[in-house]
Amino acid sequence: MSPKTTKTTYTLPIGPIHPALKEPVAFEFEIDGERIIDVDVSLGHIHRSIEWAGMRRNPIQNLYLAERICGICSYCHPMAFALAVERAAGIEVPERADYLRVVQAELERICSHTLWAGVAAHEIGFDSVLFLTWQIREKALDLTEYLTGNRVTKAITMIGGVRRDITKDMIPKITETLNYLKDNFEKLRHVYLDDKTFKMRSQGCGILTKEDALGLCACGPTTRASGVKKDVRLDQPYFAFNDLDFDYVTPDILTGEVNGDVYDRIIVRLLEVKQSIELIEQCLDQMPEGDIVSEPKIAKLLSTLKKVKGEGIGRMEAPRGEVFHYVKLDGNEYPYCWKVRAPTYSNILPWIPMLRGEQIADIPIVAASTDPCMSCTNRVAIVDADKKYELNKEQLHRLSVEKTRRLMK
Amino acid sequence: MTEQLTPEKIIKSFKDEFKTKIKDSRIEKHVAGSKKNELIHIWLNIDKSVFKKAIKHVVKLEKYPHLAVVSGYDMGKTIDLIYHFSIYYGERTKEISINITIELPKNNPVIETITDLIPGALITEQEKQEMLGVKVKGIPKDERVFIPNDFPKGVYPWRKDETGPDKMVRNLHEVKK
Q1: What is the pLDDT of residue A108?
Q2: Residues 82-121, chain B, touching A (beta carbon < 8 A)
Q3: What φ, ψ does residue B79 adopt, rounded to 5°?
Q4: CB contact under 8 A, A349 and B33
Q5: What is the pLDDT of residue B2?
Q6: Could you tell me whether strands A161-162 and A157-158 are parallel, antiparallel, or unpaired per DSSP bridges?
Q7: Domain final residue, candidates A345, A372, A398
Q8: From A100, which residue of chain B is nearest by alpha-carbon distance?
Q9: A216, A339, A344, A348: which to substitute to probe chain B, counting the most B Cβ within 10 Å?
């Protein structure tokens, strides 16, 4: 390029370490003034070769490895792995375990969605709402600890069932927490869905059309907010989901229309929190008596699995969408192949149409709106033809907060 | 919306169209919950020569088939890829998973891209290129996605032969401080 040429657009790399992302991902934005013209995404900054490691461990060890794929979905990954192994080996799960698995899955969804709602509030500068939401979430985490013995890595999964039962004397504590969550749900709904500024920041922003959602294979609340009825719990019910009464959550239930914007994604997640509370209640009412695991002796289970030749897939609706595990066993101690597909993997490409045409200050909330499974702090470099300057996390966050303040005036 | 076929009819429709190119097919049924509802997983093994047509056939069954991921492994002489689709979602208990296996010879592991039919397949195709050393013909973005650019060329982490990553693996207790 000759020095005289004037460039009308410039590139803005964001990431690999970035505020709205809980996992490192790098974006490269083409910017014209404040508008985003195009986006390029690159991944892999935190690739830890877990699949490779898993092919050198036995299936039981893999449960605990799978738990460490993600800190928030620490139930969905080992459970999807267990489902895949159970199908490859033809292991039947006791009915009671199917119900217990639903309780854990829905409790994780409550924790994850309220965590996300807090992060979303923080991204647009409402830190008091963040603390309010997480205060409510704390009760759900206490319940998780009460039921599994741990707040985050729950170690509740076992191939063929679960590791801990819910006994009668535990019911009052669960009911108390669920009632607390229900009482506070209305408060959250009012803050997130009725507030004028929340609406201004989220409506018409980060739109994903139904066609894009379908073509790009988006999943979970991201695709449901664009009006696609897609939820593994209903499409192909696993565990005890077909025994329970619930339906697809799309934003038109509440507003009568689907826009596919950030606001719609907030609606879907909030309504799903309520749905999860109801699902746990139904489970507690209907749960049959019986075993909680098909083979309690782990050594015996392992020796059975060692002889299995077969393959299976495990699919679950994690809080962020469909989590998919493929396992191939070939009669050896370790799996021959293990493929993990987390929901964010499918929700990366939809970012591109969402971010096109938006402003720089909208990047945090739009990127966060798919609830990417990530963490960390951040640095952004804005590269202007020959000048280069950097924005750190605080500065980028400030831009977003300032936009909210401008709108409030 | 097109008519929904039973799993048996789906396999029949594949066999009618591709005859002997369908090397193997099976229907797996699993049950869940007290109501014992069925989960249906179809497994197909398809000859590589009709791969693209078979994917077009899936698109005929469902306008937007959901591609979960492409998994793959090294079988020694071949590299097997499995395309995991799900169709008929959007209605309770109606969804069917279709898993299509393709065997590629290891001396020439080339497969066509399906991003023209399913744009969402891009990342998983990129991943297969770098992890298994498969060449995806016509891929719109021929770049690495998970592996950094300074990772040596010609090493494929999921291979189980001499092009695998074993030489690069060091045990922690062997590393000199």
Answers
A1: 93
A2: 82, 84, 86, 88-97, 99, 118-121
A3: -115, 120
A4: no
A5: 61
A6: antiparallel
A7: A345
A8: B33
A9: A339
**Is there a contact between B32 and A98 if contact means CB atoms under 8 Å apart?**
yes
What is the domain extent for residue B71? 7-174
CATH for B133: 3.30.460.80
Residue B1 inside a domain? The answer is no
Interface test with B, best of A99, A231, A235 (most B CBs within 10 A): A235
* ipTM for the complex shown: 0.93
Q: pLDDT at residue A107 above 70?
A: yes
The model carries a pTM of: 0.89
pLDDT digits (tens, 9 = 90+) for B69-94: 999 999 989 999 999 999 999 889 99
pLDDT the model gives residue B177: 57
Which of A228, A339, A349 is the closest to B69 by Cβ? A339
Partner-chain residue, chosen from B41, B66, B92, that has the shortest CB–CB distance to A217: B66
Section B7-31 average pLDDT? 92
Tell me the per-residue pLDDT of A356-387, one tens digit each, with 9 for 90 and over.
888 888 888 888 887 776 422 222 333 344 44
Rounded Cα–Cα distance for residues B125 and B134 (Å)? 9
